[in-house]
Amino acid sequence: MNNSDNPATLTGASSLACSSLMLHQSMNMGGTSMMMPVASVPVPAHGQAELVEGGYHLMCMDPKMKVGESIAITLTFGDGSSRIVAAPVYGATGAP
Ligand SMILES: [Cu+2]
Predict the structure, then answer these.
(1) Per-domain boundaries in the chain
(2) Which of 1, 57, 61, 64 has the greatest number of CB atoms lying within 10 Å of its CB?
(3) For residue 24, how far is its CA from the centre of ligand 1 (angstroms)?
(4) pTM of this prediction?
């Protein structure tokens, strides 16, 4: 959520639970689902950005986490600010 009058940009993410945590975007190209790294995710003024299956998401390499626990993710923004958020770990079925 961005409640300010200015657009914001998510520029990076990191977590101790991942060797690297990259910004990715999924897209459907001719019926085939593909994903690619992106440099940033825009967050419009008085708007929001969502990290969801099939859209922008964070790609965790070498995950070190267990289902049922919560991991801390540091989100970094274009203005140099950062915010730590908690993310619950779900199993492969997507259920808590
Ligand atoms: Cu991905």
Answers:
(1) 8-88
(2) 57
(3) 5
(4) 0.87
